[in-house]
Write a structure and sequence with these properties.
The protein has 243 residues and is α+β, with helices and mostly antiparallel strands. It contains 7 helices and 11 strands. The chain has a 4-stranded antiparallel sheet with strand order 1-2-7-6, covered by helices on one side. It has a 4-stranded antiparallel sheet with strand order 8-11-10-9, covered by helices on one side. A hairpin with a 2-residue loop joins strand 6 and strand 7. It is globular and about 50 Å long. The termini are far apart.
Length: 243
Amino acid sequence: MSLRIVEDALVEGIRVLKISLVEANPVSEKEALAWLRDEAELSRWKKCLPQARWYFSFCRAALRKILCDTLNCRNEQLSFEYSYYGKPYALVDNKPANIAFNVSHSGKLGVIAVAPTGSLGVDVEAIVLKRQIETLIDTVMGDEERAELRQLQGAAKLRRFFRLWACKEALIKALGTGCHTDISKFQIPVDIRKGETTTATFRFPHLPAVSWQLKDLSGREYATALAYELPTKRPPTEPENHH
């Protein structure tokens, strides 16, 4: 299956690919569906609205192809297991693979992140006008984020909202809890919120001992974010006192 990769970047050792999800046609859609072998994938495909099925199937097929190329395996050797909250993990010949990955798609863009190890999450959101944006702001943003968004208008407000939303989604996907975590209960670091930096360290309020690196990779038409767990710093071991 051929992929139209519009960007292939290495971000702190994590490969981040942006893939164009071209318009469906009977041949390409059939080819993409042939890659889907996991029951959970096929179940999600069936639940998609008809106009969204193509984007889902092509993005999942692209993920499978990239994982197969990275792991040097055939598609029929690749399978997935799922965490309690539904995050997938790759297996090759039913054995856990040494790879970490995450995938997201919105509109006509798919984003796939791949690393040798670790917990990571990626999210992409098409920056488009939504009628219910004010309701969404009240639903998914924290107090300071809502106050800052109310001071903005038009395109600036729209872009800020989607950047923050993508960052929040990337973080909970990295954490592995997905929609089971209320994203209004935490806020994106202020420097990223205001566009003063694209990288910041983040800690969930309920998990302060774990640090995450958050990167805003947004472009003009799509808000994109990557999050991954940082190694835990252990206190130095005190030398033994020999007498």
